UniProtKB/TrEMBL annotation:
Xref: PANTHER family: CHYMOTRYPSIN-LIKE PROTEASE CTRL-1, CHYMOTRYPSIN-RELATED
Keyword DNA-binding among UniProt keywords: no
Molecular function GO terms recorded: serine-type endopeptidase activity
Name this polypeptide is given: Chymotrypsin-like protease CTRL-1
Signal peptide start and end residues: 1-22
Domain Peptidase S1: 19-237
SUPFAM superfamilies for this protein: Trypsin-like serine proteases
Keywords: Disulfide bond, Hydrolase, Protease, Serine protease, Signal
TM region(s), chain numbering: none
InterPro entries named in the record: Peptidase_S1_PA (IPR009003), Peptidase_S1_PA_chymotrypsin (IPR043504), Peptidase_S1A (IPR001314), Trypsin_dom (IPR001254)
Species for this entry: Sinocyclocheilus grahami
Keyword Disulfide bond applies: yes
Length: 239
């Protein structure tokens, strides 16, 4: 049975998060951005279009009944594949792939993002972007305009000093501590963390978790695309 997803393309952490103190994104500027929505249109997670047949999101998002919708049309998904070693307790390997029932028609406003290779080396302090439609406060609804914010990459060593050695695994990447008072506390989980180099945008992380209260002193934690790249490639090639 085909299940309806909502895929919204265009242009924390707990299960669901929000970009607080972000900025409105220019329409169409993040053409891989996806919104996962309930059938009633309620946005609850983000995602990234990685090719015309697949969307990447968080495993924590994929366990919920989904609906996928683009700004231009709606789609059906036929398969949800979560990482076999995903832990609900620790959010380790917090990644999932959604296979669409038919290919997305790519346009300048709907196009996939490049995936970080397993060999990528992102220097701490690199300024990257994260985007999403998550609620900006605990009581508001999701914003109508996609939100964006710049966040610096935090080294694993510093991230472990802040969060504790055991909480940050090799399958995680951290970004965003103490920058512009930005945090991600309902609806941004699974969304993209992208970095630009020579005009090419690369997906380096997928929003996973942070403090349940908005505290910018603590970096947000993302699933590391480079560390999970081999699983992504193997899963797509075998399905």
């Amino acid at each position: 049975v085909l299940k309806k997803l909502i895929l919204v393309l265009s242009f924390t952490l707990t299960i669901g998060s929000r970009i607080v103190n972000g900025q409105n994104a220019i329409s169409g500027s993040w053409p891989w951005q996806v919104s996962l929505q309930h059938p009633n249109g309620f946005h609850f997670c983000g995602g990234s279009l990685i090719n015309e047949n697949w969307v990447l999101t968080a495993a924590q998002c994929a366990v919920i009944q989904l609906s996928l919708l683009t700004v231009h049309s709606s789609f059906l998904y036929v398969q949800v594949i979560t990482h076999p070693l995903y832990s609900r307790a620790t959010f380790n390997n917090d990644i999932a792939l959604l296979k669409l029932s038919s290919p997305v028609t790519l346009t300048p406003r709907i196009s996939p993002v490049c995936l970080a290779p397993s060999t990528i080396n992102i220097l701490p302090g690199t300024r990257c972007f994260t985007t999403g439609w998550g609620r900006t406060t605990a009581t508001t609804t999701s914003p109508e305009i996609l939100q964006q914010t710049v966040v610096p990459i935090i080294s694993p060593a510093v991230c472990r000093q802040i969060w504790g050695q055991s909480r940050i695994t090799d399958a995680m990447i951290c970004a965003g501590a103490s920058v512009s008072n930005v945090c991600f506390p309902q609806g941004d989980s699974g969304g993209p963390l992208v970095c630009e180099s020579s005009g090419v945008w690369t997906l380096v992380g997928s929003v996973s978790w942070e403090r349940s209260t908005c505290d910018p002193r603590f970096p947000a934690v993302f699933a590391s695309i480079s560390q999970l790249r081999s699983w992504i490639d193997k899963t797509i090639s075998s399905n």
